[in-house]
Write a structure and sequence with these properties.
Blueprint lengths: L4 H4 L6 H28 L4 H15 L9 E3 L5 H11 L1 H20 L11 H23 L8 H6 L1 H10 L1 H19 L4 H6 L2 H16 L11 H4 L5 H5 L4 H26 L9 H17 L6 E3 H9 L6 H16 L9 H15 L2 H10 L1 H16 L2 H20 L2 E6 L8 E9 L4 H9 L7 E4 L3 E4 L1 H28 L1
Parallel strand pairs: 4-5, 4-6
Antiparallel strand pairs: 1-2, 3-4
Helix pairs in contact: 2-3, 2-11, 2-16, 2-17, 2-18, 3-15, 3-17, 4-5, 5-14, 5-15, 6-18, 6-20, 6-21, 8-9, 9-11, 9-18, 14-15, 14-16, 19-20, 20-21, 22-23
Membrane topology: Multi-pass membrane protein
Subcellular location: Membrane
Main location: membrane
């Protein structure tokens, strides 16, 4: 019987395990190189900073306990937020932001708050990733044509028609766009060639072929700028640390912390379903991510998260232990030290094609229609979160999504029902039992039903069936009862006076 994926990654000892881990680490390294460089370029920082984050993700986060097989490094999910932060505060402040986020992650892990990230609405996370994907695609479409992108999400979308016209008029832009489009075609088709896919991961194959085509045809397209690994390292100084006192900087730190932690822990849950090895300890994994981000921040590098693309590649390549992810960091370090000039031949439009493809995979295209049919409220939260990120920024968009999820949950749990008895009888009191959870969200409906009761009958209101009643409902029901009693007394006095 052929062994399944889960059988292949069952923990084992001996040289077989080491061989499997070494093989898997090479596969992950080949996947990680173009993604690390592409995320850095898209974030508006030197390409070497992406490699540094990948190295730290392997050597630091990979060596610590938490999740056994998931791989950490720079992620497309934080590209938009990093670019916004670098534009607003400068590259020198990036290290402080990442360092502070890492310290917060360490604190949350030590306080055992990791498990609480599983309570975040899945619709918010999907909406967050969808919003990131949309902004990432919109920005990288400009990079496909070697054209500077506008600053904000709405501006990127609004100027897309101009981008198409300008590209069509420029031979150089058309050549760059053709290289980027070809890269995406290879990314889609390469996995269908099983022999090629086993020999070379799709992202590396696509970037390698694009680089070869540009070199052979001598195309005038922009290439990655290389400045050297040590030159790219910018440890934060005292002036940068002082920026943490600013409100906007703290908001960005919280956004880094929330998004990096949520993406890492959701990735861990997904990776756990791919293998039979030890399950993730969410608190320890949060500590590992925090330690990695603290080191990345001290080096002035990009923030890290666990990345599902590299993690699933690690599992599928047959990794048995955490040694595979540590070794992938070693290979990244060797590459960055010995072959830095290799980065300088990579076309930016090819990396843009890789990231457009990555952004598309962040969009829940297949899940949205079933979600709308089965859980319409969740679909609304997803769409609103994504739209808010596109129209504002990452932090504000996620906050809008979280508030929407809380409001939706409050609405769904605040069911209140009136059980009315005696209404069909000619005389006698009408008995009304209020059941469920009476909150301000259901107050208009509750008062409408009470006001519709006959005004010439006595109404006895029974609130013992309520599981919860907030202050607004309590005050409203008291006011309704007082108004009804006053109306009945006035009607009685009028009747006596007429007699």
């Amino acid at each position: 019987m052929n062994r399944t994926l889960l059988d292949r990654v069952r923990p084992a000892g001996g040289t077989g395990t080491l061989r499997a881990d070494v093989t898997a680490s090479i596969v992950v390294f080949l996947v990680a190189v173009p993604l690390c460089v592409g995320v850095a370029v898209a974030s508006g920082v030197p390409a070497e900073l992406g490699l540094i984050t990948g190295i730290v993700g392997g050597l630091v986060a990979g060596a610590l306990p938490g999740s056994s097989l998931q791989v950490s490094g720079p992620a497309a999910g934080l590209t938009v937020l990093v670019h916004e932060a670098v534009d607003e505060y400068g590259l020198s402040v990036l290290g402080v932001l990442v360092l502070a986020a890492g310290v917060l992650q360490l604190a949350m892990g030590l306080l055992r708050l990791g498990r609480w990230f599983r309570a975040i609405s899945v619709a918010v996370v999907q909406g967050m990733l969808a919003g990131i994907g949309l902004v990432l695609i919109a920005g990288q479409l400009y990079a496909l044509a070697d054209t500077p992108a506008p600053g904000s999400g709405p501006a990127k979308l609004a100027h897309l028609p101009d981008l198409v016209l300008d590209t069509a008029r420029s031979g150089t832009a058309l050549q760059a766009a053709a290289v980027g489009a070809g890269t995406m075609v290879v990314l889609v088709l390469w996995p269908t060639w099983r022999r090629g896919a086993r020999a070379l991961p799709a992202p590396l194959a696509a970037v390698a072929l694009a680089t070869l085509a540009v070199a052979v045809l001598d195309l005038p397209v922009a290439r990655v700028e290389v400045q050297g690994l040590l030159d790219a390292v910018q440890p934060p100084g005292g002036d940068e640390v002082g920026k943490l006192a600013e409100f906007g900087v703290l908001g960005t730190v919280l956004a880094f912390t929330l998004i990096a932690s949520a993406e890492s822990l959701f990735s861990a849950a997904a990776v756990d379903r791919l293998h039979h090895g030890p399950r993730t300890d969410y608190d320890k994994e949060l500590i590992a991510q925090g330690a990695g981000n603290a080191v990345c921040g001290a080096l002035g590098a990009l923030p890290m998260t666990a990345v599902i693309v590299r993690s699933s590649a690690n599992v599928r390549a047959g990794a048995r232990t955490k040694a595979s992810r540590v070794l992938h960091g070693v290979w990244l370090l060797v590459f960055a030290v010995l072959f830095p000039a290799a980065l300088g031949v990579i076309p930016i439009c090819a990396l843009a094609g890789v990231l457009v493809h990555a952004g598309w995979k962040l969009l829940p295209v297949r899940e949205l229609a079933p979600l709308w049919r089965e859980h319409r409220g969740e679909a609304v939260v997803l769409v609103v979160t994504a739209a808010a990120i596109v129209l504002t920024n990452m932090f504000e968009g996620v906050l809008v999504g979280l508030l929407m999820a809380v409001a939706k949950s409050a609405w769904e749990t605040s069911h209140v029902h009136l059980d009315i008895a005696g209404l069909e009888e000619a005389e006698g009191p009408v008995r009304v039992r209020v059941l469920g959870n009476a909150t301000f969200l259901r107050l208009p409906k509750l008062l409408d039903e009470l006001e519709a009761l006959p005004r010439d009958r006595e109404v006895r209101l029974d609130l013992h069936g309520l599981r919860h009643m907030d202050h607004a409902c309590g005050m409203a029901l008291s006011g309704w009862a007082e108004r009804r009693d006053a109306a009945r007394r006035a009607a009685g006095d009028l009747a006596v006076g007429d007699g």
